[in-house]
Every structure is written in structure tokens, then in C-alpha cells.
Amino acid sequence: MAEPVLEIRDLVVHFPTDDGIVRAVDGVSVAVRAGETLGVVGESGSGKSVTFLTVMGLVTSRQARISGQVLYRGQDLLALPPGELRDVRGRRISMIFQDPMTSLHPFYRVGAQIAEAIRAHDRVPKEEANRRAVEMLERVGIPRPRERARQYPHEFSGGMRQRAMIAMALALNPDVLIADEPTTALDVTVQAQILDLINELKHEFNTSVVLITHDLGVVAEHCDDIMVMYAGKAVEIGRAEDIYYRPHHPYTWGLLSSIARLDQARERLEPIPGLPPSLINVPSGCAFHPRCRYAFDRCRTEVPALLPADGFHASACHLPLEEKERIAREEVVARGMSTSVEPTVTPPAEQATQPLVRLRGIKKYFPIRRGIIFQRHVGDVRAVDGVDLDVFPGETVGLVGETGCGKSTLARVITRLHDVTEGTVEFEGRDITRLKGEELRLIRRDMQMVFQDPYASLNPRKTVGSIIAEPFRLHRTVPKHRIADEVKQLMELVGLNPEHYNRYPYEFSGGQRQRIGVARALALRPKLIVCDEPVSALDVSIQAQILNLLEDLQQEFNLTYVFIAHDLSVVKHVSDRVAVMYLGKIVELAEGGALYEHPRHPYTGALLSAVPIPDPHLAATKRRILLEGDVPSPIDPPAGCRFHPRCPRSRALAREQGLETDHVPLCSQTEPELVPQGPSQLAACHFPLEDRRIVGESEA
Amino acid sequence: MERLEVEREAPPSAPAPPGGAPEIVGRTPWQLFWRRFRKDRWALGGGAAVIVVVVLAVVGAPIAERLTGHELDETYIYSMTDEFGQPRGPTLSAELVPPEDQQGGSVFVFGADGLGRDVLVRILYGARTSLVVAVFATAIEIAIGIVLGLISGYYRGKIDTVISRITDVVLTLPVLLLAIGVGFACGSTKEGCVGGLVRPGIVLVSLIIGLFSWPYLSRIIRGQVLSLREKEFTEAARSLGASNRRIVFREILPNVIAPIIVYTTLIIPTNILFEAGLTFLGVGVPPEIPSWGRMLDEASENFDTQWWLMVFPGIFLFVTTLGFNLFGDGLRDALDPRSDRSTQ
Q: If I label A578, which of A262, A346, A521, A594 is the partner at 20 to 30 A Cα–Cα?
């Protein structure tokens, strides 16, 4: 194992507040080795970001009490005067942040921002700095870097901005790159690109990387060491194989079994019960004991030390080593191994029953207007551009696709939040496309939505009780004096404490808020619930809780779901049938298992191959189809097959046939229809992928 | 950055640890606001000043009248002006010469004005005028501002265009000139204007102020509503079948209350000054109503020798406006930054 470049020793960061001391980091020791990647994993509020912000000297709150050592090549950064620390920061250790939308300055050109970072440390002439900025942009895979450097951040897509951030961070060739959730805000395909890029650059520049994330799946492929954090402490540290194949801490077990996995059968997730603790009121003894299935008396009183089990691998848990090994082997890892046996999902008897929702030729264009007084119509954003879809009673239809593919718009068309531009929406055989007023209000009872952002979907000025009671007041399905009881019953049903009736949304965590959203959607006992990315804003462990809740409710109330997500593993986990959308069209529609076993559309194949798998060995053998570039603008979609400019298959075929063009003319000229490919599968592709082609096997 | 925010609640599955650790209790937004607000000494001082002025105006004026024995319009022309007709300054033992003067007290804390009237009593009654005009004018302003702001922000499109252009027009009007014009047209005679419908007085001044200053508030609210209407909770309300009116008043309005309150406390002093200014220019409240603006106007002639005529009303005006401004700033700091935790 390589020598450590950066070593954190007994780092403690406490923030005194009105309510008490927030123990954000409570005695963390870890080393980052030269040329290796350290993964730092934990739920929100586990102290993982604060630890590394402190390393960077970015915890500037005057009240913060910091102790311990951060040794960079033997030098304690915490003891350095600000001036010298600034020299280390950016040049020796640099950082990229989660949200590429806000971490670039909107006012300056991208190239200038990178050049500025260079000039902050190196006394070089402006031209030289600019030249290096362009060079770096090229290094991180930005096409036409000279032009791009002269553009502003808003002209960059999310993935491109993150690339630009990486270029800025690596411009001075630092020893350590700290990446704080670098891909959480990005689509899977872009996530794969960015993670690969970081990995490549790591080798090229011989940089050490710290990858902070809440998702164990993301770090499996790229990490050498992993530290799992809980409530400000490291609970387990080990080599990646240790963590994935011989995990020793119950919290790690929980994280592993709450991930919805693409390579596994659709079985029930095992979430970690409860919530991460408040960092003010950390439970006594082992902080994890209230959520731990294996806790015994000693755990409640005595804080476990981080003890090495075998060499480097260490965990902080009172369970005896043999017991840990046994549980890890039999209950956690074994579960991961029971793969690839697809349970026989009984497809709903499609022909027999009438669809609950029937969409025909749905188009939704958002007009773009210019001018202040006389607004001219200059074009359309074709968010949804011709979609046919049937949703049958009792089934879950998943909608997946990258940002901007039109899936959320389609959801809002179904629930009549948007009026369609063209096409018909039928609900229970009745055309509801143009319903208005009272009739529309009545039909709304039967279809509800659960929204993506649990922070924005609840009115911050209303109590939880009145939020959940709103549907009753609007539709008077329940007499006034019984509303409070009904609300409390609903709260219990979704796993909330009914005594919290009078609290405000901000007093709840993200997961609890999403439960409130579910309770509200459920109040009128609808037939259909459209879930618009209901778990994408949540931690993995909390995602599992919500997914299980949705499943239970579906069985109890015979609900039909339209489930939208950009995370294919999640969609696979919940859906009977999955529709893959690209630029406003469905490109593939299939029964869940079939889609994942043998995708027909190259886009589906690429999406599937980009999904991270929480298994280092499997991930290493998997081959990726990396999609180039970003989704084109829906204002002016490409001619022919909309996917063709990014399609690896069309490109490969053109090469095979010795064509001079990049793509097969059929693909670039004729738009493919969504036609049956096999028994229960539809795909819109001129050259569908052949049968039994394993996910991730590349074309070329 | 990761949220450092503290969960204000012990997780259900994690009972409070034994050993009597203090439990973190949930707080209402009001409690949170108060915790922040009470730490702001300037704001508390401003609030106290406002309360003192209000109490003085409501209760203090008649009490002062009783204590000094000087009625509002009572003139001590022989006792409190000198042989040149110039007023006498603050005194604790005025020589009350004519017998009719001797019924009143001999204490003129703030001196007398050119007609021999007690400046203290007039200041306190003047506070009533200032506050009433400020409140009326602000009420008119807020009513128009909220309604138009909500409508144009929520409905957007043509309605928004029309309202916004009207707003622009009102903003471009030379307010002071118009106010002087209208004030002069309607306030110079007792009959008023529009066939006697609008008569000079407090109502007229309030109308002039209110009708010209609403665009600022309406713009603020429109901006807020534009972003709130895109929040998922308005969509959620719509998907539940709530009408537009219900969404505007039940979902959106409660979220703009905070900026409205803050803005209100900040425009009240502006309006007090506006009234004083208009009266100073002679187009505000009519002469028979006591007003700080008029007192300052009258004081301006000889303020080098009769300093008390300017200093005391000036101090009151200053303290009142400063008090409201400090209070408003404190409110904004306490209400705005984190009370809306949905935006992180």
C-alpha cells in the first residue's frame, strides 16, 4: 500500500448553537494514500463533508471548535497561518463540489475562471494562464475547448460544468483532489462519464482522490479505501473489497442492503430503520444502537472503539469478530449473491382489462416567445412529442430517461396539470383531455401526484395536519369533525407519528417529508398515483424506506403507479413495465425483467451500462457503453432517429459498412416507429440490439 | 455543502437518551422568529421607540393637555410672545400676565409657538396626525400592492403585462409634483374637488400618498409570487383540485406575509415623512390640524433664534422614523434568512 499524502488525526469539529453543541465531526482519523482513491460514505449529516471542508480550511464559522491534526506531507494544516494555508489550498489540495450549477461564477467566462485559479498561485502572464486553461478544458474532454473557454457557465450543461470544475481543480496539478458528491446532481450517463474522467485523470496526474458520497454503489468501481461515517465518527474503514465482501459494521450492512440493485432480482429492500441522529443529541454508547438490529446492552452504554480486525480493515462495533464475519457472510453478502433469477412477475392481463390510463399521440410543446409587447412565436420546446402509453389497473409503469427527456412533463399531462398540445388522455375509458371546472376537479380525486422535492412540495407556512387535511377540505369526502382523525390515521399509515400533527414541514427530515407527501396523495383514496422522482432527493437508506412504503400501499389499496425516476435501479425495483424516454419520445417499452435482461434500443443499453453496481469485481468486469455528449436541445431535435447523433450502434454500423458518413443514412433520415421486438417488448430502432446481448457489452 | 442543520426532533425510533439529556423541542416559526429577534438590541430599541410614540399619541396627548393645563389651540399670546410678537422658549415658570392665561399652568417644557401655543401639546397631537396618515396611506398602498402583485405574478401573461405597464406608468409619474398639484387643487378650498367628494384633510393626504406609492410593493410581491407559483406545493394544490383563488390566498399569500410585514414597517416612516413634507409645502393636512410638517414649516423662518420650534418636532420625527426603520430592519433579519427553510 502506498504512503499517505494526507493524514487526518483525531479530527474534532464542534459547532456551538442555541440548542447545544453540534458534534459534526467527533474524532476521525483516516489517511489518503498517494495515487489512491478514498471513498467516504454516509448519510446526510454524518459529518463527511465537514471533515473535508475542515481539511481545506473552509470551515470559517468563528464559533467552530476544531481540534486534532491534518497532516499534509508531515505539515499540520490546522496550525498553518491563513496565508500559507491558501497556498496549499488549490495548489496542493483542491476540491470540487456537488452542485456544478452554483459552483461556477455566472458572471465570468469559464476559461477566465480557470485562468484565475492558475494565476492565484503561479505568477504567469495572462496569455500563458489562458493557454493552460484551454489545455485543461481539452484534457477533461470538452469539445472545441478554445471556443468553450470563451463561453459563460450558463452555456454549459450540468455535466460540462462539472468537467470545467474538475479542470479548474486539476489545473495546478494538486496532490489531492477532494470530490464532494461530484455526481449526485447528474444523470447516470453523465455520472459515469464524470467518474471515469476522475479516475483517468487520477492516473494521468498521479493525484490522490477523496470521493465523498451517500451512495455505496457509486464508489464501488473507483475506490481503493473506503471509510464509512456515522454521526461524526468513522464506523468502518477498509479496502474496498473488505467493505463490499466482508463488511463488519451493522451500519455498512444497512447501507449495502438498502441499495436497489440492477443486478438483482426484484426483492424487498431492507432499509435501515429510523433516521440519522441529531448531532446535538447523539445517542449514548454506540451512536448507531437505536437503529441496529444486533444491539445489546453494552452498545447502549459503551462507545465502541475503531478496532482493526485484520491488518488495515477496522470497525467500531461491539459484536465479536466471528459473529460479524458470520452475519456479513450469511445475511448481507449472500443476499447480494442471489442474483439473476428473475421472479415470474405475472404480467397484468393486458388484453382482458381496460387500461386505467390511455395516452394517444400526446404532444406537449412549450412555445418560446420573443418581444416585450408583441410577442412573436419563435419556436417550441418539444417536451413530449408523440407518446402512446397504456397503464393498466394495479400495475406500476416506470418512466426513465435523462434530464430533459420529457418524463415529468408527461406525468403532468396525465394528471392534467398541463394541457396537451395534441393527443388524447383517457382515464377509465373516458376522454379527459379537455375536461374543465367541476368535472376536472372530480376526476382529480382519482389521480394524485407525489412530487420530487420534499422541500418544495409542502407549503412551509402550513402545519402538517392542515397539509394532509387539504384534500378533505377541498372535496368534502369526510365530515369536518372527522377530518383530524382521518389525518392522524393517514399519518400512522405512512409511518409518521400522529402527535406531530401540529408541526411545520421544516421540522421533518427529507424522508419524513416525503411521507407527508405520500399521505396527502393517498387521502382521497385515488386509483392512480403518479410519482415524479419521489426518492431522488433522498439518501439511499431513506430511499429504501419510501420505496417499501409505496409498495405496501400499492398492495393495500390496489393502487396503480406511474413511477418516474432517472435512477434505473430504482425503476427496475418498483416497476412491472418500464418505458424509456429520449427527447420527448418513448424509445423502448418492455416488461421490467425483459428490458434489463435484453435491452433492444441502444439507448437503453447505454443507460443500463452506466448504472453503478455496488460490487467492485462485477463492476470491474462490466463494460460500459459511454454515450458521447449531452442530450440535444428539444427545441430542434435531430432529424431521423433522435438518438442517432449519440448512437454507438449506428456509428459502428456505418464504420462496418465503410460509409463516409458518421451514421447509417437510415438512422439519420428516417424516424423509427415503436414496434414489437419479441413477446412483450417494443422498441423504436432500425437496428435493435440482438437477443441475449449482455448488458454493457460494447458494440465496437 | 452538506446541511449542518440540526434535526429539530428526536427520531421516533431513537428514544431520547437516558440521563436527562435535554430534549430538543419543535418550535413554531413564531418562536424561532422571536428567539432571533430578541437578540437584536437595535430592533428592540426601535420597537420600544415606536410603542412609546404610539402611546404618547394615543394617551399622552390628552394627559399632557391636562398636566400642563394648556389646550391644543389655546393661545398664550400675551404671556408667551414678547413685545415683537416673537414666541418665548422653554420655561418652567412662565409669567402669565392676563387673567385668562392664568388658568393654565406656567410650565412650557418645549416653549411656545408664534401664537403662544404650547409646543409639547401640539407635538403630541401632531403625532396622532402623523400616525393616522401613515397607517391609512400604508393600508391603501398595501391593499392595492398585494392584490395587483398577487394577480400579475400568479396569472402572468396578458394580465401581468397590463398591470406591469400600469405600474411602470405610475412609477414614472413625478409623484411630488402631482401630489402638490392634487393637494393644491383639492386642498386649497374647503369644498375640495370632484364636486366636494374629496375634501381637504387627513383622508386626502392618505389617498395621495397611498395611490402613488403602491407600485413598489406590488413589484416585490409579483417577484415573490412568480417564484412561489412554480414551487411544487402550488402544483400539489392544483392536482388536488384547488381553485386559483384558493391557491393564491391559502397557499401563496401566507408565504409573502413576511416580506409584506417588513416592507410595511419600512414604508410607515417614509409615509410619515411624506406627510410632513406635503404639509411643509402647504398641500398636506389643513392648518387647523396639528402636524409636525406644519410646525417645521413655521419654524423654518426663524430657526436661528427660535430653535425649540424646530428641534423638538424634529426630534420626534427623527425618533419615530428611526424607530420604525430599526424595527423593520430587525423584523427582516429575523423573518427572512432562515424562517423559510424550504430554500436551501
A: A521
Q: How near does any CA of chain B get to the CA of A344, in Å?
A: 35
Q: Which of residues 57-116 of A touch B (CB under 8 A)?
A: 97-98
Q: Does one domain contain both A49 and A14?
A: yes
Q: Are residues A489 and A566 in the same domain?
A: yes
| Cβ neighbour number for residue A338 with a 10 Å cutoff | 10
Closest among A452, A477, A448 to A532, alpha carbons compared = A452
Mutate to test the interface with B, among A48, A490, A507, A538 (most CBs of B within 10 A): A507
A303 and A382 fall within a common domain: no
- Cross-chain Cβ contact A459/B251 below 8 Å: yes
Q: What is the pLDDT of residues A385-410, one digit of tens each?
A: 889 999 999 999 999 988 888 888 99
For A416, the closest chain B residue by CA position comes to B239
Q: Where among A544, A575, A606 does a domain terminate?
A: A575
Mean pLDDT of A63-90: 88
Nearest CA in chain B to A213: B2
Minimum-distance CB partner of A520 among B236, B238, B251: B236
Which pLDDT band, with edges at 50, 70 and 90, does B341 fall under? very low
Of A459, A507, A520, the CB nearest to B9: A507
Contact A111, A130 (CB under 8 A): yes
Q: How confident is the model at residue A188 (pLDDT cuts 50, 70, 90)?
A: confident
- Strand, helix or coil for residue A178: strand
Cβ proximity of A195 and A218 under 8 Å: yes
Would you say residue A495 lies in a domain? Answer: yes
Q: Is the pLDDT of residue A696 over 60?
A: no
pLDDT band (50, 70, 90) for residue A498: confident
Asked if residue A600 and residue A501 are part of one domain, the reply reads no
Chain B residues inside the 8 Å CB shell of A279: 6
Residue A275 in contact with partner chain B when CB distance is under 8 A:
yes
In a domain, residue A159? The reply is: no
B241: nearest CA in chain A?
A: A441
CB contact under 8 A, B161 and A448: no
- Give residue A644's domain range: 594-683
Query: DSSP string of A61-94?
Result: -TT-EEEEEEEETTEEGGGS-HHHHHHHBTTTEE
Instruction: Report ipTM (2 d.p.).
Output: 0.78
| A185 lies in some domain | yes
Grid cell digits, residue A494: 405512512
Crossing angle for the helix pair B292-299 and B307-335, to the nearest 10 degrees:
140
The verdict on A198 and A304 lying in the same domain is yes
CATH code, domain with A496 = 3.40.50.300
Chain A residues inside the 8 Å CB shell of B255: 459-461
pLDDT tens digits along A260-307: 877 776 677 888 888 888 888 888 889 999 988 888 888 998 899 888
The model's pTM: 0.80
Q: Report whether pLDDT(B338) > 80.
A: no
A531 pLDDT band, cuts 50/70/90, is very high
φ, ψ for residue A268, nearest 5 deg: -65, 135
Whether residue A564 is found in the same domain as residue A677: no
Residue A448: per-residue pLDDT: 92
How far is A360 from A680, CA to CA, in rounded Å?
19
Measuring CA to CA, which residue among A45, A485, A516 is closest to residue A282? A45
Mean pLDDT, to the nearest integer, of A412-435? 91
pLDDT band of B192, cuts 50, 70, 90? low
Domain boundaries, chain B: 59-117, 119-335
Domain assignment present for A46: yes
* A403 and A371 in a common domain: yes
Residue among A19, A180, A273 minimizing CB distance to B24: A19
- Give A352's pLDDT tier (boundaries 50, 70, 90): low
Superfamily of domain B119-335: MetI-like (1.10.3720.10)
Cross-chain residue pair A444–B239, CB shorter than 8 Å: yes
- Least confident window among A79-93, A512-526, A681-695, B237-251: A681-695
Q: Do A544 and A612 fall into the same domain?
A: no
Residue A301 sits at the chain B interface (C-beta within 8 Å) = no
Q: What total of structural domains would you count in chain A?
A: 3
CA distance A8 to A29: 5
> At residue A413, what are phi and psi to the nearest 5 degrees?
-70, -40
